[in-house]
């Protein structure tokens, strides 16, 4: 979802809203009927592929049976949620989700900022461009390919990393089959894929800082290090806070699609997150109602976090996502 | 002028070193797998291949790219990517236009309907059941239709429209142009940079998606590239495809095949990447700075 951060940034640009009085409303609607027509395909899309699945959530309150359908299945109220609360497996999954997500925020969030700050100091255009081209690239590779790359490089038999470990006298580690290391693999590969690309929003924010500030500081005798800490960093601070708050909104999204390409039953204990759990229980075990309940719990918490984050950002930096 | 002090020099060298290391860390896994794909099989099997190839052969690559299943999957992925991207960009660009007219009655409510779907969704199971109900399981439309509008992408295009000078539309209206004409003749041609960037994002999404094919496609004849790749990468040595091919060819190992398949799957992306890169950097920067 890194792309989305860049895009959200734009939404912060507030636009003045012309006020229309009641009398002109019908005239506006009639003269612009063709604008409303343009919305028809988009609205149909929304209803069918976004809102219809929301209706499907009712099966979380049922003992859903595919043959009886939405209407025929038995209603069980909050039984599925009770099962969820008492499920030890869910508790483990919830902890895994939080751990992986928090590790990703704490360890990976600062990297793009540092990359952007450093790239900004590079005066050699060719070097700058080359590095950018290289570090943006992994963002465009699929998780399957990235799993392939790291399964290869971390392989206990002939993988680069284990060859190095053995060379130093250690014993090879099966990173993908070891509960002690699996989360680190998840966090590291996520960093490898997105760190460079995530810098783009900060690069853009730096480009928006007024040049006069640097000139003034330079005249006052500030060196480049001081300029970086006293002009560039404060200049992008609102962006940093905004992106961080947004990131918090996705706290329970620990990387479902990533982990699905990497894990296996051996590391469920450390690597199973809410998203992968829903997938396994729902489509693997056909336990539709229970996994929909888990999914609903996930969506609700996510929803609350995003709303709270938006309010927080309004208060803190007077910018909001919508 | 500020003179370069010793501190500045260390600062510079430090920065260049850190960035260089970032670049190398990015390239290392790619160099390693490329080397495995084109090294002598005996070196691959004995784990001697590091960053550089040991010996040289293209048999494995040739074998992989001439495999029917591989070519078939590439074809499916191309189809989904081209058709999906075209439809998605058309629908997104069209929907964004009325939404940029905030003074129109009802628009803000419709806007809320769009934005709400960014924050709340039905989840995996209700989506799966919907596809089943629509008879789209094992149908390539299931991979395209639900992704035709990304609300995030639409908001980017919308705010780009809003940044265009209003006088353009007003003068066109004076000349008697209708909204349709204004959108297709004036607004869209002016929005090419942002449209191209968003089209790239859609294309990357369709090309790289393995999650939805995994949910909705189990017919082997409809497997897109990422799903085919997943079978080879994830199934380790048990993959029948890999084992069979290893028997067929003397100079080919399962590991070599895996490496070559990954490389062959990256190649299409690498071919278009340098061309696209200059667009998205420009597009993203245009979008973000102006606010």
TrEMBL record, chain A:
One Pfam family matching this protein: BPD_transp_1
Alphabetical UniProt keywords: Cell membrane, Membrane, Transmembrane, Transmembrane helix, Transport
Source organism of this protein record: Paenibacillus roseopurpureus
Any one biological process term the GO annotation gives: transmembrane transport
Designated name of the protein: ABC transporter permease subunit
InterPro entries in alphabetical order: MetI-like, MetI-like_sf, UgpAE/MalFG_permease
Segments traversing the membrane: 35-61, 93-119, 140-161, 181-207, 228-252, 288-309
Main location: membrane
Localization terms from the record: Cell membrane
CDD domains: TM_PBP2
Family that this chain belongs to: Belongs to the binding-protein-dependent transport system permease family.
Domain ABC transmembrane type-1: 94-309
Recorded GO CC terms: plasma membrane
PANTHER family: BLL4140 PROTEIN
Membrane topology (UniProt): Multi-pass membrane protein
TrEMBL record, chain B:
InterPro entries: MetI-like, MetI-like_sf
PANTHER family named among the record's database cross-references: ABC TRANSPORTER PERMEASE PROTEIN MG189-RELATED-RELATED, POLYGALACTURONAN_RHAMNOGALACTURONAN TRANSPORT SYSTEM PERMEASE PROTEIN YTCP
Keyword Transport (UniProt): yes
Family under the similarity heading: Belongs to the binding-protein-dependent transport system permease family.
Domain ABC transmembrane type-1 stretches: 74-276
Identification of the protein by name: Carbohydrate ABC transporter permease
Location of this chain's protein in the cell: Cell membrane
Cited CDD domains: TM_PBP2 (cd06261)
Ranges that cross the membrane: 13-34, 70-94, 106-129, 141-161, 182-207, 257-276
The species this protein was found in: Paenibacillus roseopurpureus
Keywords: Cell membrane, Membrane, Transmembrane, Transmembrane helix, Transport
One GO CC annotation: plasma membrane
Membrane topology of the entry: Multi-pass membrane protein
GO biological process: transmembrane transport
